[in-house]
Amino acid sequence: MKLHWSPRSPFVRKVMIVAHELGLANRIDCVRTVVATARPHLPLMEENPLSKIPTLVLDDGTVLYDSRVICEYLDGLHHGRRLVPQDFSERRTALRRQALGDGFLDFLLLLRNERERAHPSDAHLAALTAKQQAVLRALERETGDLAASDFGIGHIAIGCALSYLDFRFGDEDWRTNHPGIARWHESFRARPSVRATEPIDDS
Ligand SMILES: N[C@@H](CCC(=O)N[C@@H](CS)C(=O)NCC(=O)O)C(=O)O
Question: Does the beta carbon of 102 lie inside 6 Å of ligand 1?
Fold first, then answer.
């Protein structure tokens, strides 16, 4: 399998954490692919018209995107405990958590893009910051349930988003006002799959 990959992308990291958790990382050939919202990647768009990573190309040429679809595909390649639960109620919670983590990442990518513009929009910055604070408050409320439930795709998405906050917004102290989720994030960071996929700014 070929994965359009970058050491900076939190969505790629999600996929690679899943691959490490499942013992599948050595079956993935990571191909460095540089994408940017303002520059369509024409060769990548032959495979994924959205011009986004992660994009997975299977050995028979089948193309899979986005991270949710790829993670679920990888989770179907083994017979162990699923990272995307099959039980209806556990699945609903895990997918909702995944949506929260992925949505949080979407805001953070937008916030970073907005800050880098010559004339950032104050309204956009304020709205994205308000949403970021709301997500952190929601995560703080959910910490107990998150810690008590089996590690899975929801934990991975949320952990990747919090780690991206540290990677790209390192001057923000989100921990002081959210001590519960900060503690949970420490346990996430200690996992071998998470340590094996530390982001690198190679720009
Ligand atoms: N919903 C997608 C989001 C993927 C995404 O936004 N990837 C970023 C890199 S972290 C990207 O490809 N950006 C390029 C662009 O927006 O054109 C997923 O879960 O895979």
Answer: yes
**85: exposed, middle or buried (Cβ count in 10 Å: 0-12, 13-18, 19+):** buried
Q: What is the DSSP string of 16-30?
A: HHHHHHTT-GGG-EE
Task: Answer whether 0.90 is exceeded by the pTM.
Answer: yes
Atom 19 in ligand 1: which residue has the minimum CA distance?
Answer: 67
Alpha-carbon dihedral angle through residues 20, 25, 31, 32, given to the nearest 10 degrees: 20
Q: Give the nearest ligand 1 atom to 51 CA.
A: 17
Cβ of 190: how many Cβ atoms within 10 Å?
Answer: 9
* CA-nearest residue, atom 13 of ligand 1: 52
Interval 7-64: pLDDT, tens: 999 999 999 999 999 999 999 999 999 999 999 999 999 999 999 999 999 999 999 9
Q: What is the DSSP string of 139-203?
A: HHHHHHHHHHSPP-HHHHHHHHHHHHHHHH-TT---STT-HHHHHHHHHHHTSHHHHTT------
Pocket test for ligand 1, best of 52, 68, 70, 163 (most atoms within 8 A of CB): 52
- Two structure tokens written together for 169: 């917004």
> Mapping DSSP to helix (H, G, I), strand (E, B) and coil, where does residue 57 land?
strand
Q: How many CA atoms lie within 13 A of 175 on its CB side?
A: 10
